[in-house]
Amino acid sequence: MKRTRPLSHDPALYRRATADAFRKLAPRVLARNPVMFVVGAGSLLTTAAFLHDLALDGWSARAAFGGQISLWLWATVLFANFAEALAEGRGKAQADTLRNARRDTPAFRLRDGGTTEEVSASALVPADLVVVKAGQVIPADGTVVEGAAAVDESAITGESAPVVRESGGDRSAVTGGTTVLSDRLVIRVTQEPGKSFLDRMIALVEGAERQKTPNEIALNILLAGLTLVFLLAVVTLKPFALFHGANVSVVVLIALLVCLIPTTIGGLLAAIGIAGMDRLLRRNVLAMSGRAVEAAGDVDVLLLDKTGTITLGNRMAADFAPLDGVDRAELVHAALLASSGDETPEGRSIVELARAQGGEAEGHGDHAHHGDARRIPFTAQTRMSGIDLPGRQLRKGAADAVLAWVDGLDLPGETGMENQRAARRDEAHRLADAIATQGGTPLVVACSASGVLGVIHLKDVVKPGMRDRFERIRAMGIRTVMITGDNRLTAKAIAAEAGVDDFLAEAKPEDKLHLIVDLQKGGRLVAMSGDGTNDAPALAQSDVGLVMNTGTQAAREAGNMIDLDSDPTKLIEIVEIGKQLLITRGALTTFSVSNDVAKYFAIIPALFAASLPQLGALDLMRLTSPESAVLSAVIFNALIIVALIPLALRGVRYRPRGTAHALRANLLVYGLGGLVAPFVGIKCIDLLITALGLV
Amino acid sequence: MTPRDYLQLALFLGILAAVSPPLGRYIHRVLEGGRTWLHPLLGPVERLIYAAAGVDPTRDHTWQRYAACVLGFTLTGFCLTFGVLLFQDVLPLNPQNFPAPSWDLALNTAVSFVTNTNWQAYGGETAMSHLSQTVALTYQNFVSAAVGMAACMAVARGIARAEAQGIGNFWTDLVRATLYVLLPLCVPGALLLAGQGMVQTFAASFTAVTPEGATQTIAVGPVASQVIIKMLGTNGGGFFNANAAHPFENPTAVSNFIQMLAIFLLPSALVFTLGTAVRRPRHAWTVWGVMAGVFLAGVLLTAHFEYRGTPAMAQAGAATTAPSASIAAPGVSPTPASMPASTPPPVPNMEGKEVRFGVFASSLFATITTDASCGAVNAMHDSLTPLGGLVTLLNMQLGEIIFGGVGSGLYGMVLFIILTVFLAGLMVGRTPDYLGKRIEGREVTLAVAALLLPALPLLGFTALAAVGWGPQALANAGAHGFSELLYAYSSASQNNGSAFAGLAANSPAFNLTTAAAMLIGRFGVMLPMLAVAGSLAARRPRPITDASFPVEGATFALLLTAVILIVGALTYLPALSLGPIVEHLQMLEGRLY
Questions:
Q1: What's chain A's average pLDDT?
Q2: Please, which of A96, A125, A485, B65 could form a disulfide with B61 given CB 3.0 to 4.6 Å?
Q3: pLDDT tens per residue across span A562-587
Q4: Spatial separation of the C-alpha atoms in residues B402 and B234, rounded to whole Å
């Protein structure tokens, strides 16, 4: 059911990211990230100091130290750039694939006279009508106005099974770049030239239009603020040292600054955001903005359509309930016959159930040799289907429709039957109500000879596993509301069976919009999925609006996410991805800040090793020498970025559980872990570089 | 620490915890315009003030308007105080005929009192006339505390209100805080202190002849009335230069205890004012618990280091008490040669302490006065052991939020709560909110500004002074001298006002830079926090559910404590390591200043 695009381990991806890491050293690009900009500036300064030392006294221990520090500071910037480039890389690779689908195809524009003319796809403007035949590529986004066809949309969705597109209804939207496999479609173009869905998709996955999300901006401000605080703390150290008659090395001061400012989260922040969008993309969800992904993590209420989301699309026959005095087998047989002309899924499910219950045996398969039987198909007007056999007619359908039909019959019988018929009517009503109370739909079966026979129980079948999923959503503190056109009783029963928190029954499309507005007035964020044109206002109003790719053009414009698989339950995964994105940001920020404590204990004693040797007592890690202490801290600071790239791209493991529990667990891992890890890491690096004789 | 010390500490915290919630609720009621039993008496006075000042008490101010009123009121107060000080030689109530202070000292003092700092670059009894002490300084002790309380209430309203434009009316907040909170507490408080033997007179100093026959000028004045508000208002500016170590300003152990309680009373109660405003008493207790926890750690550390004294004191002590020690422990052979090798028993550090109060009451007072931005002292902080001094320094540098100044302590704490919620709140998978109010770029920007602004003069001026005007003003060299400098600018920037002493602070360079530091420290936090209040008030709150970030309970308390300590430590550890930390390490090596 869940299909994800495989994680690419293409070496080309890494080659490209490496090249991009250097390209992103351009000051204009670097300036977008205040933390890394400071590291870049620091690297320049230490490099200058190194070259100055080199020019003055040639290769010396001092120059070697300065050179290594410079090297690792540059590496810090490059690692951060690499993380961002790697996160972007997957999207870029996918954009390249999509570009191949955007060939300039010939289009056959329909002229007034009914003839076609061949034009370039790029010449099409909205409201143009084009004809696309089997084997041709659809030249532009549009709405099918005539015909039905199987369309291969794999260029966009990656799904090779063709989908049906037809005029009218909710499956009328087609996307430029997809291929018609059968039949012929007439399409009204809806896109401006160069602004196709494919173009938008390319821009989105490539990150060309990527803007920082509100939370990302806020976090960036905090990181910039912390950078300023540390800049102040480090810059003032120079005069403080002078007061003590000590002269501290500028290289070490810069090393201290870089170690203290939040480089870990600063270097990975952009990658985390891009990777979040990418995780959605791998689940075939296209987010129109990073803001939408963030909002998904914040959602308080999920609005889910009953049909197709919570339940399987169709009701299925579950049981037969004969009236008092009617033989059950007779009812089953009559239901089978009356449904034989009903091609709706409900009708077919009745036939299946009746057969399974041996309905055919009764009457010796008589309908097979009733050559003169007339089948009456189900229509929305009559709300009945049936069969006319010689001597009797059978009907099955909505309770009120069938009962009205029975009343209209001129039934044979003596006087006094009136009361009996009324009693049977009442019983039929009672049975029907009982079924409705349980969330089912009653269909009444009647015979022209003997009146009402019984009731068929049609049931909404809740998709397997929905209860568990709702349980998980509840654990995240999110409320689920089921939206249905059913009456209250039915809705209540299904809501209870599926385990949703609340339901909106007898809902009209505008009710959905009102519900969203009301929830938002209470300060809640609302997510919903939809596909039809009448969903468009609600989709536009909701904070996260997931549109099915099969949806209409209007719906696709209104939502802020598109599910290329058209699976409405994916909303749940989207919320999880949104939460995961925010948690990853918080966890790495906490980790980054807690790291600083250890670095102080490494660098401060080293800084004053010559002038205030007593501060050596602070060197808890007992590092080899002042130089090795500073170098170890800087190396740790750079390598931790690389070490955390997989976590940033994959996201922190997210398990739905109580807020307090999640907070405690994450604090333990990333807060306490962040305090301890650098003590161990710096000590190990110190041992290693000492063994290698680097200092 | 002795059992009696623990008892005193438990009594102190117990009384504080008992009286704070009802007082906090009372403050909330009066500031929100509710009626109390004082209204029949003070209501007409309140209405008279509004009528006379032309204030419409029903008007709600936006944060901009509120901030403008605060600034306007403070500027007016500054001009008044500055003027009285500058012309005190020609103004009445000057029985000693004190000359006017220099313009930079007058400016420094005026800034100091309007910012609730009470940094004193002068000796009160030898520089200030009675008019200056009462009209200029005591008046500011009242209103600067009331301004803090008002701003704090405005911030609480910002958090509590939903989709609102305003955050309250500054003028009514100011008048009500003074009339219904400060005055009713001060009148019985002053009488209580006077009852303990504290001086209260408008008479001039008199001359006494000591037993040795020398003459001594005994300064007196309206002490009790100024002392009670200097404590309740966390002002700290003493009538006498020796502040609460002076027998006329702190005559007994009881007056010492009352003064300590008075310092924490309003900052502690205001926590519950916030809790009442947002209808979350558990949140208030959590915040109070964080304050109490950091406070306790500070007290215990300071007392520990003061009781342990220094190796030099232990050596000296060992030399004088060695014979009795050998009697007490007959098994130990009293060979003189072994004495220096073994560690002598610790001798408590009594240097700079009043014998009347001893080690513990002095350590407790030192912690309280630096936790709250009070700055009154009953012992010389300069003479604390290096690590005892470190606690007082760090207390101030954390931002005066461990109870903190009246009002300023709590809105400073809200700043840290916002930072904590933002830093850690993401870890529950939602964009962070504080009590339903989303924390976004604007709030983070303002919080970062409020965090950075006091650090700027604190570290910046210390750095400039360290290589500029500092060294020649210092009594001590090396690490201790550096601590004195760092203490001065920490005290000024965080509006504490206490001095490490050992620093000749009355020079234009010190007067002007500390004045700038005090202004930045006061308004660099207050104005951004008022802006935060305005922005939060306008927000539509999201309902608080199980999925919200929990701002109550042990996890949040630990988290908030960690953020306060880590952010504070990360910012100031380099400076502290060159002051008290290295001094301590050098002391262990036998190097003294």
A1: 85
A2: B65
A3: 888 878 778 888 988 999 999 999 99
A4: 12
Q: How far is B539 from chain A (nearest CA, A)?
A: 9
DSSP B14-30: HHHHHHHHHHHHHHHHH
Answer whether B555 sits within 8 Å of A663, measured CB to CB: yes
B342-355: b (≥16 Cβ within 10 Å) or e: eebeebbbbeebbe
Q: Write out the H or E segment, with its range, that includes residue A110.
A: strand A106-110
Distance from CA of A290 to the nearest CA of B (A): 13
User: Which of B163, B390, B421, B430 to substitute to test the interface with A, most A CBs within 10 Å?
Assistant: B430
Domain ranges in chain B?
Answer: 3-312+351-588
* Residues of chain A positioned with their CB less than 8 A from the CB of B548: 477, 659
Which residues are registered as beta bridge partners of A188? A129, A143
Q: Indicate which residue of A305, A342, A460, A535 is catalytic.
A: A305
- Asked if B547 lies within 8 A of A478 by C-beta distance, the reply is yes
Element housing B235 (H / E): none
Chain A residues lying within 8 Å of B436, measured CB to CB: 523
The answer to whether the CB of A5 falls within 8 A of the CB of A15 is no
Q: Which of A217, A476, A587 sits opposite B547 (nearest CB)?
A: A476
Interface test with B, best of A35, A220, A235, A240 (most B CBs within 10 A): A240
Q: What are phi and psi of A304, to 5 degrees?
A: -125, 130
Question: How far is residue B409's CA from residue B271's CA, in Å, rounded to a whole number?
Answer: 9
Tell me which residue of B115, B116, B137, B141 sits closest to B128, measured CA to CA.
B137
| Token duo for residue A180 | 């018609």
Residues across chain A: 695
ipTM over the 0.85 cut-off: yes
How far is Cα B567 from Cα A96, in angstroms, rounded to an integer? Answer: 46
Please confirm, yes or no, whether A486 is among the known catalytic residues. Answer: no
Q: What is the pLDDT of residue B324?
A: 43
> What is the per-residue pLDDT across A79-121, written as a single tens digit (0 to 9) for each?
999 999 998 887 888 788 778 777 677 888 888 888 888 888 8
Greatest alpha-carbon pair distance for chain A in Å reads 127
CA distance linking residue A242 with residue A234, whole number of Å? 13
Determine the 3-state secondary structure of B533 from DSSP.
Answer: helix
Contact A229 B426 (CB under 8 A): no
Amino acid at B562: A
Provide the whole-model pTM: 0.87
A660 vs B448: CB contact, 8 Å cut-off? Answer: no
Rounded to a whole number, what is the distance in Å from the CA of A232 to chain B's nearest CA? 7
- How far lies A278's CA from each of A200, A649, B106, in Å? 15, 9, 64
